[in-house]
Amino acid sequence: MQYRKITVSASGVYDIIISSGLLENAADYIQSITKAKKIAIITDDNVDALYGEKLLRCLTDKGFNAVKFVFPHGEASKCEGTLFRIYSFLCENHITRSDCLIALGGGVVGDITGFAAATFLRGLDYIQIPTSLLAQVDSSVGGKTAIDIPEGKNLVGAFKQPRLVLCDTSTLSTLPEKFLIDGMGEVVKYGMIKSAPLFEILENRTIDDIMDIADDIIEQCVSIKRDVVEADEFDKGERMLLNFGHTLAHSIEQYYNYTGITHGMAVAAGMRIITEIAEKHDMAKSGLAKRLVKCMDNYSLNTKIEPTAQQLAQACLNDKKRESDNISIIICSDIGKSSAVKMAVDNFLKLLSE
Fold this sequence. Notes:
By secondary structure, this protein is an alpha/beta fold. Helix content is about 45%, strand content about 20%. The strands form three sheets. It has a seven-stranded mixed sheet with strand order 1-2-9-6-5-3-4, with helices on both faces. A hairpin with a 2-residue loop joins strand 10 and strand 11 (about 325-335). Helix 6 (about 175-195) crosses helix 8 (about 215-230). The protein starts with a strand and ends with a helix. The relative contact order is 0.11.
């Protein structure tokens, strides 16, 4: 099978494999990186209906003792209640430190499974098999894991690198278009922060073209993230750039109670707002916000939102990039050029209120 491989060298070294049809041979790849005999698949009900039994059979046919936990799909499930049900399931099935978890699904599945792997028995191995575009280009790579709490998104989590990431691009063909649109919010982000050539490709395509260039897009985004993670695994410097648009996006998602807007749509709105602010205050090239919005329109990334910036301000105070009375805001001065700008929280809130 022809595939693309990207190796991440962080606190753990692991490969990201990109190809169509990987699920059929997933057990072969998994056997090559683990001595585990028992594997617990964690997935949601949408993904389970499509791929759960297929992966379970693939593993059992190769001699693994495989079990499966399924929870309701959606961001609302990325919470303490689901996490503790996963812990109970792992106990009931006598999962030990020498066993392995598999996250089969999108970003929610990957985040909560990774956090369970980081914390259950003080840590065991896990593998990412992302099935959404957003997860394949972004959340399955880099080792950030978390759950949401009422006070904000991803506020409780841990850094836990996977042992392997299998991006089966054929799974994207089963996605409703809204999930492709969701993933494109993160793809556009990568072009904005690090790659003018990627952004220019996106400017000349539409959502109808994405499946034709999916492997290329995923490889480019993952390569950018690999480089950033290797330089700053624990989010103290350059890795902050990956959060362009996210400070506001997380507040937007919280405003909608994690059900009325997708993550990609929220990121798109966050990127627009912060770029408009940056342009207004001469921190970004004139016309940049217009060019960004035009590109996002190609992928039906609607950046119009109900809450005002002032309504979002309070939730921004819980952002993970805040340090005491300061907060680091990611600004793109031009396509492919980004930086973290530290400012007083009061000044940031003032910019939003304007």
